[in-house]
Amino acid sequence: MTLAEIKSLDQADPLAAKREEFLLPEGVIYLDGNSLGALPKRVVARMAQVIQQEWGQSLIKSWNTHGWIDLPQRVGARIARLVGAEPDEVVVADSTSVNLFKVLLAALELRPGRRAILSDIANFPTDLYIAQGITELLKRHELRLVSKEEIDKSLDEEVAVLLLTEVDYRTGYRYEMAHLTRLAQQKGALVVWDLAHSAGAFPVHLNQAQVDFAVGCGYKYLNGGPGAPAFLFVARRHQAATRPFLTGWMGHADPFAFSPEYIPAEDLRRLTVGTPAILSLSALEAALEVFEGVDMALVRQKSLQLTDLFIQLMEPLAARYGFQLATPLEHARRGSQVSYRHPEGYAIMQALIAQGVVGDFRAPDILRFGFAPLYLRFEDVYQAVHRLAQVMQSGLWREARFQERAKVT
To answer: Which CATH architecture has domain 3-30+295-402?
Structure first.
């Protein structure tokens, strides 16, 4: 495909105007929105308002006058539309890891007599660590780790919870959510989905798939900023029976009664714990305004076009320099990222970043490229591959400075 043809794709892109709503560094092609989303312009103005006016002038009155106290539910309702849930089924609080701890414990209690948590051995490590911690805490459960291909046959009468991430963080492989949810439930298990690489990247259909529980983060495709709070989903049918095990004051039925006895809130607020992080919640709320009126089906369509183009343009480089595609070609099995394996993946990625194309690396050998359709252009994809070709042709990646491992990869 020629550069002229690629530019014509940008001209015809129905989402093209969204790029202007983000602050993007000049000369940088950002292919790491699957790790940290770009900064929406409206977040800058919102943070100034919260800090200077709400905190600076209204002070503690802002809990009421500016609705700070309702931010977890209000922001959750915005996310609910993006993940196929009802507004009262999503709340924003804490981190993905903490939220997973909450919902996984709640799900296990709903399946007494069953002792196993089943997950993919390649699942994101924090999910596995949380599950391991719970098994050590409870002393009566076990974590079973199997390959993707073994999930179906590993679901038996001992499995209480199937724990999966919809899109594999390394390869971009996308699980078939509806099929696996149905299969697990037919076996009597509940399902917890991690949507860290799904929410904001393409349409998610939690209720359509009859999902039980889900968690996700706010700083990747939702663009909420570094360390943005996470969200959790509990289907309405489970909410009354979902017991909170982190029983903090904000989950109390009447937190300002200051009763010594914990009584859980009747709604999903019961799964909140401590005081909401107002600055980060406000940033996430403003970031989510970018999605207002956006048809997520168009986001998915552009995502597939971008990743298809990237794979197509990479073919000559893959053949010449030994890059091995790790991401499925099948659209239904692909998230919004493309990953390649290469034994010198870390050094190549550092050299590419130095040339203004920002992706990232995942051990042991994955170069990972994320495609955020709201602000990425087709021409960006073309230029990214062109710069990678220059890195490989020049041997730039062999320089010693690109071999040194940083703390964050």
So the answer is: Alpha-Beta Complex (3.90)
Identify whether 321 is a catalytic site residue: no
Report yes or no on whether pTM surpasses 0.70: yes
Active site residue 61: no
Non-local (6+) Cβ contacts of 292 within 8 A are none
156 is catalytic: no
Whether residue 368 lies in the annotated active site = yes
What is the residue-level pLDDT of the chain in tens, covering all 409 positions? Answer: 889 999 999 999 999 999 999 999 999 999 999 999 999 999 999 999 999 999 999 999 999 999 999 999 999 999 999 999 999 999 999 999 999 999 999 999 999 999 999 999 999 999 999 999 999 999 999 999 999 999 999 999 999 999 999 999 999 999 999 999 999 999 999 999 999 999 999 999 999 999 999 999 999 999 999 999 999 999 999 999 999 999 999 999 999 999 999 999 999 999 999 999 999 999 999 999 999 999 999 999 999 999 999 999 999 999 999 999 999 999 999 999 999 999 999 999 999 999 999 999 999 999 999 999 999 999 999 999 999 999 999 999 999 999 999 999 8
Nearby residues of 105 by Cβ (< 8 Å), 6 or more positions away: 134, 243, 245
Looking at the chain, which residues constitute the CATH 3.90.1150.10 domain(s)?
3-30+295-402
Residue tagged active-site, from 127, 168, 194, 360: 194
DSSP code per residue over 219-237: SSTT---TT---EEEE-HH
At the second CATH level, the architecture of 46-291 is: 3-Layer(aba) Sandwich (3.40)
User: Would you say how long the chain is, in residues?
Assistant: 409
Determine which one of 46, 174, 368, 377 is catalytic: 368
**Cβ burial 109-138 (10 Å sphere, 16+ → b, else e):** ebeeebbbbbbbebbbeebbebbeebbeee
Active site residue 387: no
